[in-house]
Amino acid sequence: xxxxxxxxxxxxxxxxxxxxxxxxxxxxxxxxxxxxxxxxxxxxxxxxxxxxxxxxxxxxxx
Length: 62
Fold this sequence. Notes:
Blueprint: H1 7-18, E1 25-26, E2 32-33
Antiparallel strand pairs: 1-2
């Protein structure tokens, strides 16, 4: 099995390529967009059938 690169490996390679420039950019609305998002950045969407209903109003989707 091969070893997967870590987030730190990715950041080190990116920093080397961009020579210290900030990779975060901003939308016209002022939102900061990071160059890499991981599962740690995601909020917990909760269970299906419960507010905020991002995964449907029912667990079975029917």
